[in-house]
Amino acid sequence: MCPIKDVTTITENKKITTLAAKNMLRTHTCGELRICDIGKNVTLTGWVQRKRDKGNIIWIDLRDRFGITQLMFEKNKTDNSILQIVDKIGREYVILAKGTVIERESKNPKLPTGDIEIQVNELVILNESATPPFTIDENTDGGEDLRMKYRYLDLRRQPLKQNIELRHRLARETRKYLDQNGFLEIETPFLIKSTPEGARDFVVPSRLHPGEFYALPQSPQTFKQLLMVAGFDRYFQIVRCFRDEDLRADRQPEFTQIDCEMSFVEQEDVLNMFEGLIKHLFTTEKNIKFDDFPKITYQEAIEKYGTDKPDIRFGMTINNISKIVQGKGFQIFDNSEVILAIVVPQAASYTRKQIDELTEFVKRPQIGMSGLAYIRYSNNEIKSSFDKFYSPDELKQIALFCNAQIGDLVLILSGNRKKTYKAMSELRLEMGNRLGLRSPNVYAPLWVVDFPLLEWDDETQRYYAMHHPFTSPKKEDISLLKTNPAQVRANAYDLVINGIEIGGGSIRIHSRELQQTMFNVLGFTNEETQQQFGFLLHAFEFGTPPHGGIALGFDRICALFGGTESIRDYIAFPKNQAARDMMIDAPSTISIEQLNELHIQINYPS
Amino acid sequence: MCPIKDVTTITENKKITTLAAKNMLRTHTCGELRICDIGKNVTLTGWVQRKRDKGNIIWIDLRDRFGITQLMFEKNKTDNSILQIVDKIGREYVILAKGTVIERESKNPKLPTGDIEIQVNELVILNESATPPFTIDENTDGGEDLRMKYRYLDLRRQPLKQNIELRHRLARETRKYLDQNGFLEIETPFLIKSTPEGARDFVVPSRLHPGEFYALPQSPQTFKQLLMVAGFDRYFQIVRCFRDEDLRADRQPEFTQIDCEMSFVEQEDVLNMFEGLIKHLFTTEKNIKFDDFPKITYQEAIEKYGTDKPDIRFGMTINNISKIVQGKGFQIFDNSEVILAIVVPQAASYTRKQIDELTEFVKRPQIGMSGLAYIRYSNNEIKSSFDKFYSPDELKQIALFCNAQIGDLVLILSGNRKKTYKAMSELRLEMGNRLGLRSPNVYAPLWVVDFPLLEWDDETQRYYAMHHPFTSPKKEDISLLKTNPAQVRANAYDLVINGIEIGGGSIRIHSRELQQTMFNVLGFTNEETQQQFGFLLHAFEFGTPPHGGIALGFDRICALFGGTESIRDYIAFPKNQAARDMMIDAPSTISIEQLNELHIQINYPS
Question: Of A218, B198, B310, B606, which has the highest C-beta tally within 10 A?
């Protein structure tokens, strides 16, 4: 018996590998054969990765999902009819080769099958291939659009193939963990009801009910809450969700989430359970172990990092220096709502040019600051961009307030509170990048808790739910709901890893009265509430347990584990920025008969 | 340590059970405590199943997903404040109870927790409940419509709860088996392109592309084939599919299928792999083992059972007696295209009334026969409904031709071939029911193979693909495609269990030319083909491997394993016969702003 090394990433023992390998058309996969298989007669199938003609010998690298195996043909020995077939074969042809496993003369230690090759004695072309429009290699020469159109060819490339395999494993391990913790995977409907709150719905006209529409779910939120009302105790689903949004970078109109809900829980239960899930995924996929994830409040996250999605792979936290810099006659600071500083270690020696670059960075329209101030805290002297107004002692005092060490550079932004914190967060991340503190192989998870319940919107002059309208306020803040809604904190939490929001959730409202109050605070009349969420309020009358949950962005988790930026690379058939499937060319027009059946007609924009 | 008996159906060992049980609000579930837990102080949460007041003692049955535990209150001993709370509590209230586990005086052997009860010393009402509109019991008094509207209450009932748990386990075991066999679960898009072939699509208007629509997939057929082009070798997905059909009994506009595809395979590979899956599910769920599933051809299925979905839990196969009964002067038989007979064992003694009932059965409009003939093959004499035309010897010859034994009843139908086979199939099933040969606890799977590739449709005067346009014809029949399309057999197969089509699949076409020919046979012009399936034909130019697959109806599998008829009972939130979600009241109208954004307006039928 030939022991199996790491033949594939998804098969875990010999028995399984054998099962995966054997079909009527092949005896082994292209990732399977080893030195101990020498002498065996085998049949392999796959794609021609490349063909090399070295005078007397021709080699073909045969590729399938499981690996690459070298086929060998000798011009003097191999049957002439076979050589004629070899001659016809080009890149990406699908072939079947029978032959004997022999030891290679020059081995390839980089390839699991690199010790052997196949001396071919039978060869069949199963299908021909036109020349692909780009190379099927680790790094391809194809542009984005071309690769989207020929996605089935792009997916043949090793990096994309591995992404899809990674996604499979992450889904499998997620299900395993949740199943073992008593969660039931329960499917919720896709054809539901449109609600105006939240993002824009995709809708589906009903043929049987003229003038009526289903909506595709933005999340199974109300259904999972109804499952808790139904007593299912622990629910999960890896489920497609839909949002008809103008696509920003790295958004898809359809995306996948790990959706979960638990009954008879407090916030701590949900956090522990899903911290456990993330730890399980890191252990099984990367063999990385974590201590307990840190927890910081929303308030603290904003004050220290300028964002509710802090990247804590590095420090460089924000200092509010308003109090010590204001009132010294420097108008720019004195007229600012807030003055913030970060300390860049060992950067006092930055050149004028480097600092100009950073100034340009914060002046970009996306960030919109009017300038960048700094203090160089060097061995000999302390210098700043605003020396006129502050004595060296005062500058030193500022530097020390920020815990700067000699040799550090203090970067300072000032202005409107919200904008300046946001800008400082961007500048901090930029400095993290410049100093190499944001390695994709380092993972720093944390929980951000105690989010505000509501956000005021100036444009529509009303409050919006920061999370969603079903999130419960903290008990001690409920009384503020009617007097000072902006101050109410929610039992809401986000999981953030490396500055990316991986998921979020909350303990839900389970009292009918409180839910009605919440809708009222959000500006719904009782009638509107009844029409849109009546079924949920009604359900709350029949013994709803305390419950809470979380939803994790599965596409984003895959990208995080894969170590590249775009979620598109982890979706087999993604849409482009215009929400279009370039491969099948969707959306597309439909027939007039279809429109008639659906009782709709098109109003082209004038 | 207290060993755990069968606390729940989904948890397999102590560790897991403990994990599933413990939350901040409870120490144990209501299905967990045993005699060895006596003396423990515990906190339980759940719903009040019932309250019994027996003078000095009050009992409450507390229910959660995991079981029922009895709470006990003594009027003289229990704190008065607690008794006052008990007094307020009604059915379906959500409560939290702390207390001590004690041994019951009169044990309940039917309940896993029946040896113990909880002497309560702290009681909290977590939520009240209005009186449910129907009883939350094994058998409820609620009508179908009411239960659909309050689905979250209906789901609290034990039978529905168990169905949803069963579904979870079947999905889990399906994934486990396929993962272990090298299949990757790969998600395919939901927003795809409408194609006129097949059933009616649900469509989704595009906001970004005025006048254009996405379609929801009827199945991921083309995508899974493209995954084979991409080299993924073995794909599966448990995936929602959509069909906008007029709903017959037991159809849903959205349904779930186990969708699979394999590369470098022949029919035998697919059959073996998925026979393995079904065996795995029966072994793990029911501890039933099967021999190899029988295989019969479509032709044979029709001839022996009158249907391509034969129930082979019992014999009573169809005999074509045309040759031996025709030409004897009996006009009805002589004018019939076909005369068919089944032998009902030990039914010669059927009364006139019983036979009249069967005659009425075949004359029902759904079946539409004009009458039923019979032969009673008794000990003393042989009698028939058409004695005038046949001698007793001739009758006996007919009976013996059908392998009738003395005491049997031969039932005979005659008429048009297609209709008579169908009617005989119905009559056979009816007799199976009457004789108790169709127990839901007996399972008889089989493969039906060699389906015809095409079906002629009289109305539209064209051929349709019996399976779908991507199914490959048998090699030896390809030449008939242009000369005699109706005779071409397909590499297509169905899995049938107990007369229910559980799934079907085929070896696909992987040659561009053959696929184009197939579209032409189906009446597509080259232009139409290009517009609708151009992406697939184009993909076939780049090295498509031989491939095939199957799709299994997951809702139906659940119903089969659950042993009841309707798939609705296995879907958490099903639609009714009018494709309406009664609970959330969808579909519904949407706002004029939404319509405008989507560039559509409504055409109400006049």
Answer: B310
| Range of the structural domain that residue A47 is part of | 7-127
Q: Report pLDDT for A519.
A: 93
Do A8 and B189 count as a contact with CB atoms less than 8 A apart? no
Residue with tokens 């692909």: A132
- State chain B's mean pLDDT as an integer: 93
On whether any CB of chain A is under 8 Å from the CB of B583, the answer is yes
Query: Are the beta carbons of B587 and A213 separated by less than 8 Å?
Result: yes
**pLDDT tens-digit readout, B122-180:** 999 999 999 999 999 888 888 889 999 999 999 999 999 999 999 999 999 999 999 99
Q: How far apart are CA A522 and CA A516, in angstroms?
A: 10
Question: ipTM strictly over 0.90?
Answer: yes
Q: Is B245 on the interface with A (CB under 8 A)?
A: no
Q: What whole-number distance in Å separates Cα of residue A457 and Cα of residue A454?
A: 10
Chain A residue with Cα closest to B511 = A127
Could you tell me the sign of the dihedral formed by the alpha carbons of A452, A458, A463, A466, in that order?
negative
Chain A CB contacts of B17 under 8 Å are 182
**Cα–Cα distance, B192 to B172 (Å, whole number):** 27
Residue A384, pLDDT score: 94
**B chain contacts of residue A569, beta-carbon cutoff 8 Å:** none
Question: What's the whole-model pTM score?
Answer: 0.95
Question: Nearest-CA residue of chain A relative to B546?
Answer: A126
B523 conformational bin, left if phi > 0, alpha if psi -120 to 50, beta if neither: left
Instruction: Tell whether A455 and A426 lie within a shared domain.
Output: no
- List pLDDT tens digits, range B293-342: 999 999 999 999 999 999 999 999 999 999 999 999 999 999 999 999 99
Boundary residue ending a domain (B387, B403, B438): B438
One domain for residues A212 and A121: no
Of the candidates A204, A544, A571, the beta carbon closest to that of B94 is on A544
Give B122's strand partners: B98
B602: closest chain A residue by CA: A600
CATH number at residue B80: 2.40.50.140
Residue A506: which CATH number? 3.30.930.10
Tens of pLDDT, residues B217-245: 999 999 999 999 999 999 999 999 999 99
Q: Using the 8-state DSSP alphabet, how is residue A201 labeled?
A: P
Whether B428 has its CB under 8 Å from any CB of chain A: the answer is no
CB A476 within 8 A of CB A526: no
In a domain, B405, yes or no: yes
Give pLDDT, residue B605: 79
* Residues of chain A found within 8 Å of residue B232, distances taken between Cβ atoms: 65, 155, 161, 164
Q: What confidence score (pLDDT) does residue A55 get?
A: 86
Binned at pLDDT 50, 70 and 90, residue A428 comes out as very high
B439 inside 8 A of chain A by CB: no
Distance, in Å, from the CA atom of A315 to the CA atom of A337, rounded to the nearest integer, reads: 24
Token pair 């904190």: residue: A489
